[in-house]
Amino acid sequence: MHAWLCENPVGVEALAWKELPTPQPRAGEVRIAVRAASLNFPDLLIVQNKYQVKPPLPFVPGGEYAGHVDAVGDGVTHLKPGDAVAAVGATGGFATHAIAPAASVIPLPPGFDVEDGAAFAFTYGTSHHALMDRGALKPGETVLVLGAAGGVGTAAVQIAKAAGARVIGAASSEEKCALLREIGADATIDYVRDNLRDALKGLTDGRGPDIVYDPVGGEWAEPAFRSIAWRGRYLVVGFAGGAIPALPWNLALLKGASVVGVFWGDFVRREPQAFAHSMAELARWYAEGRIKPVIDERLPMSALPEAYARMGSRQVRGKLLLVNDAAA
Ligand SMILES: NC(=O)c1ccc[n+]([C@@H]2O[C@H](COP(=O)([O-])OP(=O)(O)OC[C@H]3O[C@@H](n4cnc5c(N)ncnc54)[C@H](OP(=O)(O)O)[C@@H]3O)[C@@H](O)[C@H]2O)c1
Known about the structure:
Blueprint: E1 2-5, E2 16-19, E3 29-38, H1 41-46, E4 64-72, E5 84-88, E6 97-101, E7 106-107, H2 114-117, H3 121-134, E8 142-145, H4 151-162, E9 166-171, H5 174-182, E10 187-190, H6 196-203, E11 211-214, H7 221-226, E12 233-236, H8 250-255, E13 258-261, H9 264-270, H10 272-287, E14 295-300, H11 304-312, E15 319-323
Parallel strand pairs: 8-9, 8-11, 9-10, 11-12, 12-13, 14-15
Antiparallel strand pairs: 1-2, 3-4, 3-6, 3-15, 4-5, 5-7
Helix pairs in contact: 3-4, 3-10
Bound molecules: NADP nicotinamide-adenine-dinucleotide phosphate (NAP).
């Protein structure tokens, strides 16, 4: 097998594409022939030793991938070679083959495109848990999505629409805003060009959004929170902008608003039944054509450094896929 190996977590430049012995799955594990992996923001952090999970060295990065089971360890009865599956974890996916615990592997339903499966659970799972569970989104409410053209952002736009919300997508360029309108946003704000507060006032008759979905943090958080509607919910999803914002608490009092944390990884571990319900609803919406991963580009697995560079410079629209050729 081949894999991108991180022997020293000092950045993308230290990764090397290496030939390694193909591992055998141990009891309770499966080996997956990786068809495609997608890039998520934590993949960028983990190779710089900046992510909350710090895997023992050396490790293979790649937290989300899909393909076909090609070997099973002892005791694995619900999966067999040939099954199409997706896997989400911290590592392993930027490779031709990966080992995963069978219990955490997600079998793909019939008709679910394998490449879509490599770009689905992490972003749609996070955004569904955020909006439907933590945010208690109701049909007819208005949702503002910041960083809306990114991975979790595009998923949030589609999920909020599928749930009957009015969606305002905010992003850093007109090109990204055009994508957001294509995937269903009712209105968009270029927050680099326009004043976020003024634009929100204009788009909501001064009322503000009921929910703010924020995977960016930094400079947009305070103006977005100042604009939130009465009884609004501010979903703290991530800090792709780099800075963790500090908000004056009186704003929460004045709006009767809530700041709500979202931690999908722990939700999956702590609440497996709720996670299963969330994935079942997402699979149904996918089958009905109401949600579909936005794939910016499919790159060969060997182009991982280029993919990292594009994500680090805010150029990705939706998701980047890294694909192994069929013979790998
Ligand atoms: N809480 C959870 O459970 C959970 C789960 C998954 C992901 N996350 C977090 O959500 C965030 C987004 O993840 P993602 O995979 O969707 O990333 P992504 O595809 O790169 O999207 C992030 C967006 O943030 C914006 N951004 C603003 N400043 C940036 C900067 N300096 N560098 C990069 N992007 C910047 C960009 O949009 P504009 O250019 O339009 O501003 C970009 O599209 C990350 O912080 C990630 O860790 C959290």
